[in-house]
Amino acid sequence: MRVTVTLDGQKLLVPVDPQATVAILLDKVIEKASRHPTLRRRRLCRSALTAKLEGSWLDPNDVLAEVVKDGETVAVKSEVEDEPEATDSMINIKVVGPANPEVQFRVKKSTQLRKVMTAYCDRMQQDMKGLQFLYGSERIRPEQTPAQLEMKDGDIIDALVKSVGDIGVWDIGVWASHTNREGVQFLQGQVASRQDAQQLLQSYDAEQYSHFQIHTGDAVGERGRRMLMEYADAHHQGEQDLKLDFSLRKLSELLGATCVNKLVALFPATISKVKVRRVQPASGQGHCIGFHKDVSNLTMQIALNSDCQYSGGKLVFVTAEGLQQPKRPAGLISIHDSTILHGVTRHITGVRYSLFFLNET
After folding, report:
1. How distant, in Å, are the alpha carbons of 36, 107, 126, 334 from that of 207?
2. Can you tell me whether residue 8 is helix, strand or coil?
3. Is the dihedral of CA 193, 195, 199, 205 positive or negative?
4. What is the pLDDT of residues 300-336, one digit of tens each?
5. Lower CB count within 10 Å: N or C terminus of the chain?
6. Residue 263: phi, psi to the nearest 5?
7. Architecture of the structural domain at 2-78
8. Neighbouring residues of 61: CB distance < 8 A, sequence distance ≥ 6
9. Main-chain phi, psi angles of 73, to 5 degrees
């Protein structure tokens, strides 16, 4: 059975054996909370948790099937408030770079992260202006502290090379390890159940019945796709993730007006930006794009090469029916709006090329 649980205003969908006790349910709540983007910061103790159903307390030894019916919600509360951590306490932070070199720093929670960024760049002999630092999928500002970001001992910061035409953290996603991000295990190879998908939708406050469109016709054509990939290769200077800005006029010069008019006709909104993207895997452990919702109102992605030319890097949509992973032959077009939760699996080998149309207004 699946029990809906509320904790600190957050809803959790907890799969559990109907013959299990309330105590086992509370153990599973702690496990779920540890992976929740908000609740994971709570230090929960089983002995301090209580469960209530419609105003009545549940005994930890009660069998769930005897006291909880389908559709009912169990309210869980911690009777012990977290003690605030001292902002001058020390924690260990790992910074993982573009080629996966890992550097560990021990800092006070009140220390501005500018010092960590500067020290990392000095150690790696890199210009800090050429890097962006992410915690989860949020860009870190130099003046922020671990305490402000509610960082824990052992947390990871990703140091990524800024790309040409970088359009921000959320638009068309960021390739990184995303170690601290909810659901990353499903992008690293773990199989997700339908219940897992529904939990992700709840965690990210995403629409359960959002849809995406797939067009299988190759509107760009083999010659046009090859020209765009060669253009990206010619501008590549070693970046893991290269994004190049295009105007429709510039695109027409490469592909021809007829081809571009076909693409424009497929995109059901005003075009704000056009991007060509070239992604190669990070050395060592492959990076993925964590689950997110786009800032852009509408995104159209055209696969410039087939997914049989690289391994990993699969586009994944999260729906109420489970995780959907459409095949990506060369020329395939996918269209989705800003309500659907999606990510991309770990990129292992090969180069992945895409053309993007974005609507931001």
Report:
1. 18, 39, 41, 18
2. coil
3. positive
4. 999 999 999 999 999 999 999 999 999 999 999 999 9
5. C
6. -65, -45
7. Roll (3.10)
8. 21, 22, 23
9. -115, 130
Model pLDDT for residues 135-168, shown as the tens digit of each residue: 765 678 888 999 888 888 888 887 776 543 333 3
For the sheet with 102-108, list strands across it.
102-108, 90-96, 156-161, 131-135, 138-139
**CATH level 3 topology of 184-359:** Jelly Rolls (2.60.120)
In Å, how far from its chain's centre is CA 344? 8
Distance from C-alpha of 159 to C-alpha of 121, rounded to nearest angstrom: 9
Where exactly does CATH 2.60.120.620 map onto the chain? 184-359
What's the half-sphere exposure (Cβ side, CA atoms, 13 Å) at 189? 6
Domain with CATH 3.10.20.90 in the chain: 2-78, 90-162
Q: Where are the alpha helices (DSSP H) in the chain?
A: 22-35, 64-67, 114-124, 184-187, 194-203, 221-234, 248-255, 257-266
Using DSSP, state whether 123 is helix, strand or coil. Answer: helix
Contact 39, 28 (CB under 8 A): no
Dihedral sign, CA of 47, 197, 337, 334? positive
CATH code, 90-162: 3.10.20.90
Using the CB atoms, write b or e for 125-145: b if 16+ within 10 Å: eeeeeebbbbbbbeebeeebb
pLDDT in tens, 34-72: 766 667 667 777 777 888 888 788 888 889 989 888 778
Cα separation, 154 vs 133, in Å, equals: 16
Whether 4 contacts 11, CB under 8 Å = yes
Q: What is the pLDDT of residue 169?
A: 40
**Which residue from 28, 10, 33, 21 is spatially nearest to 58, judged by alpha carbons?**
21
Q: What is the pTM of this model?
A: 0.59
